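Complex record, two chains
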Amino acid sequence: MNRKQRIAEQIHQSLQSIAHLDVVDESYMHAVPANAESHFKLLIVSSDFASLSMIERHRLINQLFAAEFNNGLHALSLHTWTPEEWVVKGGVLPTSPPCLGGSKVQKSIQNQ
Amino acid sequence: MDVLERIREQVTCNPVVIYMKGTPQFPQCGFSSRAAAALQETGVPFSYINVLQDSEIFENLPRFADWPTFPQIYIDGELIGGCDITLELHASGELKSMMEKAVSQAAE
Protein backbone atom coordinates (compact mmCIF):
# COMPACT_ATOMS: atom_id res chain seq x y z
CA MET A 1 0.00 0.00 0.00
CA ASN A 2 1.42 3.41 -0.89
CA ARG A 3 1.24 6.44 1.38
CA LYS A 4 -1.79 7.89 -0.39
CA GLN A 5 -3.72 4.68 0.27
CA ARG A 6 -2.51 4.51 3.87
CA ILE A 7 -3.62 8.10 4.48
CA ALA A 8 -7.08 7.45 3.06
CA GLU A 9 -7.45 4.23 5.04
CA GLN A 10 -6.34 5.88 8.29
CA ILE A 11 -8.91 8.65 7.85
CA HIS A 12 -11.67 6.18 7.08
CA GLN A 13 -10.76 4.24 10.21
CA SER A 14 -10.52 7.29 12.46
CA LEU A 15 -13.50 9.45 11.53
CA GLN A 16 -17.06 8.35 12.12
CA SER A 17 -18.63 10.10 9.16
CA ILE A 18 -16.99 11.14 5.92
CA ALA A 19 -19.06 13.06 3.38
CA HIS A 20 -16.13 13.63 1.06
CA LEU A 21 -12.43 12.79 1.04
CA ASP A 22 -9.75 13.75 -1.44
CA VAL A 23 -6.14 12.73 -0.93
CA VAL A 24 -3.85 14.38 -3.48
CA ASP A 25 -0.17 13.54 -3.79
CA GLU A 26 1.41 16.89 -4.62
CA SER A 27 4.99 15.72 -4.22
CA TYR A 28 5.63 16.29 -7.93
CA MET A 29 5.24 20.04 -7.27
CA HIS A 30 8.19 20.05 -4.90
CA ALA A 31 11.93 19.62 -5.08
CA VAL A 32 11.94 15.99 -4.06
CA PRO A 33 12.92 12.77 -5.84
CA ALA A 34 10.31 11.02 -7.99
CA ASN A 35 7.83 8.94 -5.96
CA ALA A 36 8.90 10.69 -2.77
CA GLU A 37 5.32 10.66 -1.41
CA SER A 38 6.29 13.65 0.72
CA HIS A 39 3.68 16.37 0.08
CA PHE A 40 -0.04 15.69 0.32
CA LYS A 41 -3.19 17.76 0.21
CA LEU A 42 -6.29 16.51 2.00
CA LEU A 43 -9.85 17.67 1.63
CA ILE A 44 -11.95 16.12 4.36
CA VAL A 45 -15.64 16.88 4.74
CA SER A 46 -16.97 15.34 7.93
CA SER A 47 -19.60 16.13 10.55
CA ASP A 48 -17.03 14.90 13.10
CA PHE A 49 -15.53 18.40 12.84
CA ALA A 50 -18.68 20.20 13.99
CA SER A 51 -17.61 20.63 17.62
CA LEU A 52 -13.94 21.34 16.85
CA SER A 53 -12.14 24.61 16.11
CA MET A 54 -10.03 24.75 12.96
CA ILE A 55 -6.77 24.19 14.85
CA GLU A 56 -8.31 21.27 16.76
CA ARG A 57 -9.35 19.70 13.45
CA HIS A 58 -5.84 20.08 12.06
CA ARG A 59 -4.29 18.72 15.25
CA LEU A 60 -6.61 15.73 15.09
CA ILE A 61 -5.58 14.91 11.52
CA ASN A 62 -1.88 15.69 12.03
CA GLN A 63 -1.80 13.35 15.03
CA LEU A 64 -3.16 10.49 12.93
CA PHE A 65 -0.03 10.76 10.81
CA ALA A 66 2.69 11.18 13.44
CA ALA A 67 4.34 7.95 12.29
CA GLU A 68 4.17 9.03 8.62
CA PHE A 69 5.76 12.38 9.53
CA ASN A 70 8.62 10.42 11.09
CA ASN A 71 8.93 8.36 7.95
CA GLY A 72 9.23 10.75 5.03
CA LEU A 73 5.95 12.66 5.07
CA HIS A 74 6.95 16.31 4.87
CA ALA A 75 3.87 18.43 4.27
CA LEU A 76 0.17 17.93 4.82
CA SER A 77 -2.06 20.66 3.47
CA LEU A 78 -5.42 20.35 5.23
CA HIS A 79 -8.89 21.51 4.29
CA THR A 80 -11.24 20.30 6.97
CA TRP A 81 -14.92 21.20 6.69
CA THR A 82 -18.24 20.14 8.05
CA PRO A 83 -20.75 19.30 5.28
CA GLU A 84 -22.57 22.61 5.98
CA GLU A 85 -19.36 24.68 5.69
CA TRP A 86 -18.44 22.83 2.53
CA VAL A 87 -21.72 23.77 0.86
CA VAL A 88 -21.43 27.42 1.98
CA LYS A 89 -17.93 27.50 0.49
CA GLY A 90 -19.40 26.54 -2.84
CA GLY A 91 -18.03 23.05 -2.69
CA VAL A 92 -19.78 20.59 -4.84
CA LEU A 93 -20.97 17.40 -3.30
CA PRO A 94 -19.64 14.27 -4.96
CA THR A 95 -21.20 13.73 -8.34
CA SER A 96 -23.69 10.93 -8.61
CA PRO A 97 -22.75 7.90 -10.70
CA PRO A 98 -23.78 7.83 -14.38
CA CYS A 99 -27.04 6.20 -15.33
CA LEU A 100 -25.64 3.21 -17.26
CA GLY A 101 -28.96 2.82 -19.08
CA GLY A 102 -31.06 1.06 -16.44
CA SER A 103 -33.97 3.49 -16.69
CA LYS A 104 -34.15 3.03 -20.47
CA VAL A 105 -34.40 -0.70 -20.01
CA GLN A 106 -37.12 -0.16 -17.41
CA LYS A 107 -39.09 2.11 -19.80
CA SER A 108 -38.96 -0.37 -22.68
CA ILE A 109 -40.24 -3.10 -20.37
CA GLN A 110 -43.13 -0.83 -19.25
CA ASN A 111 -44.02 -0.01 -22.89
CA GLN A 112 -44.25 -3.63 -23.91
CA MET B 1 18.94 29.50 27.51
CA ASP B 2 17.12 26.29 26.80
CA VAL B 3 15.70 26.25 23.27
CA LEU B 4 12.13 25.73 24.42
CA GLU B 5 12.48 28.73 26.76
CA ARG B 6 13.90 30.72 23.88
CA ILE B 7 10.88 29.86 21.71
CA ARG B 8 8.50 30.66 24.55
CA GLU B 9 10.14 34.05 24.94
CA GLN B 10 9.90 34.72 21.19
CA VAL B 11 6.19 33.93 20.99
CA THR B 12 5.32 35.89 24.10
CA CYS B 13 7.49 38.96 23.43
CA ASN B 14 6.27 39.33 19.85
CA PRO B 15 2.52 39.90 19.38
CA VAL B 16 2.66 38.22 15.96
CA VAL B 17 5.46 35.92 14.87
CA ILE B 18 5.84 33.50 11.98
CA TYR B 19 8.39 30.68 11.99
CA MET B 20 9.10 30.17 8.33
CA LYS B 21 11.55 28.78 5.82
CA GLY B 22 13.35 31.82 4.49
CA THR B 23 12.16 35.38 5.02
CA PRO B 24 9.04 37.27 3.86
CA GLN B 25 11.26 38.90 1.19
CA PHE B 26 13.00 35.64 0.20
CA PRO B 27 10.75 32.77 1.24
CA GLN B 28 12.20 29.31 0.58
CA CYS B 29 9.00 27.29 0.73
CA GLY B 30 5.65 27.82 -0.97
CA PHE B 31 3.64 27.39 2.21
CA SER B 32 5.86 29.81 4.15
CA SER B 33 5.63 32.25 1.25
CA ARG B 34 1.85 32.23 1.17
CA ALA B 35 1.45 32.54 4.92
CA ALA B 36 3.93 35.43 5.14
CA ALA B 37 2.20 37.16 2.22
CA ALA B 38 -1.14 36.91 4.04
CA LEU B 39 0.39 38.48 7.14
CA GLN B 40 1.91 41.25 5.03
CA GLU B 41 -1.38 41.95 3.29
CA THR B 42 -3.02 42.84 6.60
CA GLY B 43 -0.64 45.79 6.91
CA VAL B 44 -0.12 44.93 10.58
CA PRO B 45 3.52 44.58 11.65
CA PHE B 46 4.80 41.12 12.52
CA SER B 47 8.06 39.37 13.35
CA TYR B 48 9.54 36.41 11.55
CA ILE B 49 12.09 33.76 12.37
CA ASN B 50 13.87 31.95 9.57
CA VAL B 51 14.02 28.36 10.81
CA LEU B 52 16.54 27.48 8.10
CA GLN B 53 19.06 29.70 9.88
CA ASP B 54 18.49 28.28 13.34
CA SER B 55 18.83 24.53 13.39
CA GLU B 56 17.99 24.33 17.09
CA ILE B 57 14.62 25.97 16.54
CA PHE B 58 14.08 24.00 13.33
CA GLU B 59 14.51 20.77 15.26
CA ASN B 60 12.58 21.71 18.39
CA LEU B 61 9.68 23.89 17.29
CA PRO B 62 7.54 20.91 16.24
CA ARG B 63 7.71 19.42 19.72
CA PHE B 64 7.25 22.83 21.39
CA ALA B 65 3.86 23.16 19.77
CA ASP B 66 3.10 19.51 19.01
CA TRP B 67 2.70 20.67 15.40
CA PRO B 68 4.68 18.75 12.78
CA THR B 69 5.18 21.28 9.98
CA PHE B 70 6.33 24.78 9.04
CA PRO B 71 5.33 27.54 8.85
CA GLN B 72 3.87 28.11 12.31
CA ILE B 73 2.12 31.37 13.13
CA TYR B 74 1.71 32.62 16.68
CA ILE B 75 -0.57 35.46 17.71
CA ASP B 76 -0.55 36.71 21.29
CA GLY B 77 1.59 33.77 22.36
CA GLU B 78 -0.70 31.15 20.90
CA LEU B 79 -0.26 28.95 17.84
CA ILE B 80 -3.07 29.76 15.41
CA GLY B 81 -1.95 27.15 12.88
CA GLY B 82 0.05 26.77 9.71
CA CYS B 83 -0.40 28.06 6.18
CA ASP B 84 -3.91 26.69 5.54
CA ILE B 85 -5.50 28.14 8.69
CA THR B 86 -3.71 31.46 8.25
CA LEU B 87 -5.05 31.79 4.69
CA GLU B 88 -8.55 30.91 5.85
CA LEU B 89 -8.41 33.50 8.63
CA HIS B 90 -7.12 36.05 6.13
CA ALA B 91 -9.90 35.29 3.65
CA SER B 92 -12.55 35.80 6.34
CA GLY B 93 -10.93 39.02 7.57
CA GLU B 94 -10.30 37.59 11.03
CA LEU B 95 -6.53 37.52 10.66
CA LYS B 96 -6.17 41.30 10.54
CA SER B 97 -8.36 41.89 13.58
CA MET B 98 -6.57 39.17 15.57
CA MET B 99 -3.20 40.73 14.70
CA GLU B 100 -4.39 44.27 15.49
CA LYS B 101 -5.73 43.16 18.84
CA ALA B 102 -2.47 41.43 19.76
CA VAL B 103 -0.37 44.41 18.69
CA SER B 104 -2.49 46.91 20.62
CA GLN B 105 -2.46 44.74 23.73
CA ALA B 106 1.31 44.51 23.56
CA ALA B 107 1.57 48.30 23.32
CA GLU B 108 -0.40 48.83 26.52
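Note: Chain B has one domain: 3-94.
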